[in-house]
Fold this sequence. Notes:
Helix content: 40-55%
Number of strands: 5
Number of helices: 7
Strand content: 15-25%
Distance between the termini: 54 Å
Number of domains: 2
Radius of gyration: 19 Å
CATH class of the largest domain: Alpha Beta
Largest sheet: 3 strands, parallel
Shape: globular
CATH topology of the largest domain: Transcription Regulator spoIIAA
Amino acid sequence: xxxxxxHRFDLAxxxxxxxxxxxxIRPLLVEGGVQRDCLDVLEHVCTEMLNNALDHxxxxxxxxxxxxxPASVAGTRLRxxxxxxxxPSLRQIFDRYCPQPELQFSRTExxxxxxxxTDGALVSRSQGKRLVMGLDxxxxxSFDFSGIESVNQxxxxxxxxxxxxxxxxxEIRVTGASPPVASMLRHVGFQG
Length: 192
């Protein structure tokens, strides 16, 4: 069996790191004999790295590579490119996501359209739970509803009432909400 794997993925919408993992990468690792407990760790690392590349790099594509031996599977290596013509200022990046004086990444932006493009209509509490997974690590979360025409009550209630009450210390903001989305968010008690 092949002991290395390299795939390049386009980060243009729609891109879903879990779908890339579950449909393209995991089957090849399973075929290569990688065991379940190791796959769990690799899933977490791979989907987090892909999500970070999507959310923060402004890259057009990402390459995922694994190599393995009977004793181990590859660690993490990060390679990136920065435009020499119009490089971002580190100050701009840190001011946006790592405000002073905390000096830690405490803000994030979530494009809700990514979930809709992979899941279809946003109707269920389970979709809401997946959307907010891991967001309790941030002090401020901004949900961008651009391109979303409507959401159902279960989805909105899970994100904007249940989770908001469970983590009152997190500032929640909403941008790009259409009138029907804004109305549903108010209906479940979101006042932002």
